[in-house]
Design brief:
Blueprint: E1 18-24, H1 30-43, E2 49-54, H2 58-67, E3 73-76, H3 83-93, E4 98-103, E5 106-108, H4 112-118, E6 125-135, E7 164-165, E8 173-177, H5 178-184, H6 202-213, E9 218-230, H7 238-259, H8 261-264, H9 266-289, H10 293-324
Parallel strand pairs: 1-2, 1-4, 2-3, 6-9
Antiparallel strand pairs: 4-8, 5-9, 6-8, 7-9
């Protein structure tokens, strides 16, 4: 099924086998999807498998099915519409030791497959997540703080700079032992992205559930496992920034209700109390030292951190208030 690369012959017998699941829903991302799948096929070994799940789009299903016949398993989503349902369809079809997830607008960097598999040499590792580098449509907006790169589905400032245990992964670049997914259960369809709706946290809830089920296991973040994640034009606007922050607050409240507030907000407390204040101060210092456009951009980053944090908290409080009043 997978085309064998020249270096795929060595060490196959002892190497962790890999299923990569890529979920797609729109033809607008077709060029990015093709780039993502071709990059994966160039690295995957003959013992690996690539599964593409199309989320309720018959035309895209036909296009990808014809293009990647015999090189990948192309399936229609057999579960609830949305990213969680599509991922669950992929997991159900997976047959290898480890199941990895890459977004349809993300392209793996050289050495991704080897780095991902190498991390599973330690038996206590239940999952590995990697770094998502933003690929901006042109120049990065000067006002956009790197502490908020999660808004565009990428790794943010404040994550570990070397391999280290973490609470949860970013969804566009993560993997788990298949046995762990079988035991933990599906991605929740009560949260997560459906189409362009800017909500998420389904991978956060799953990661917390895995750790709660077996605290002896480790979820490891490895910054050497890299994907380049494309950022679309509509995601570099102030409106999207605020919408995504507000939606994150909604999602965090739902996750806290599912896994408990202590685990559901543990990473967020450290982020708000340490990462964000340093970001605000750094922006203000740069604004004082700089001039002209540099000063405006630096001040804009500090302002965006404050406003983004406020929008996220507002989303959380909105969801909490509606839940207590029985409006949701």
């Amino acid at each position: 099924m997978i085309e064998t690369t020249a270096r795929a012959e060595a060490g196959v017998a002892t190497r962790t086998s890999l299923t990569v699941v890529v979920c797609a829903y729109t033809e607008e991302r077709l060029p990015l999807l093709v780039e993502s799948l071709d990059a994966l096929l160039s690295q995957l070994h003959a013992t690996d498998e690539l599964i593409v799940v199309i989320d309720y789009n018959e035309k895209l299903l036909t296009t990808i099915g014809e293009r990647y016949a015999r090189r990948a398993v192309v399936l229609e989503n057999r579960c609830a519409r949305g990213l969680s349902g599509a991922r669950n369809t992929g997991v159900a079809a997976a047959t290898r030791d480890v199941v990895a997830f890459v977004d349809d607008d993300a392209t793996i960097a050289p050495g991704w497959v080897e780095a991902m598999c190498r991390g599973y040499g330690q038996p206590q590792v239940a999952g590995i997540g990697g770094y998502a580098q933003p690929v901006w449509p042109g120049r990065r907006p000067g006002w956009f703080p790197p502490e908020f790169d999660w808004v565009v589905g990428c790794s943010h400032l404040g994550l570990p700079r070397s391999a280290a245990p973490v609470r949860n992964f970013i969804g566009c670049n993560m993997s788990f032992r298949r046995s762990v997914l079988t035991e933990a259960g599906d991605f929740s369809t009560a949260i997560g992205r459906v189409g362009n709706r800017p909500v998420g946290c389904e991978e956060t809830e799953l990661c917390i559930r895995i750790s709660q089920r077996d605290p002896s296991t480790t979820l490891m973040f490895d910054p050497n496992v890299v994907v380049r994640h494309s950022v679309s034009e509509n995601r570099v606007t102030v409106k999207y920034f605020l919408d995504r922050c507000f939606s994150e607050g909604l999602s965090k409240y739902k996750v806290s209700g599912m896994v408990g507030r202590s685990d559901g907000l543990s990473s967020e407390r450290d982020y708000v109390l340490t990462v964000l204040p340093f970001g605000v101060v750094r922006g203000l210092v740069d604004a004082v030292r700089g001039g002209g456009a540099v000063r405006r951009a630096a001040a804009g980053r500090s302002l965006a951190i404050v406003v983004g944090c406020a929008a996220t908290v507002t989303g959380y409080l909105y969801a909490m208030t509606h839940a207590r009043l029985g409006l949701t």
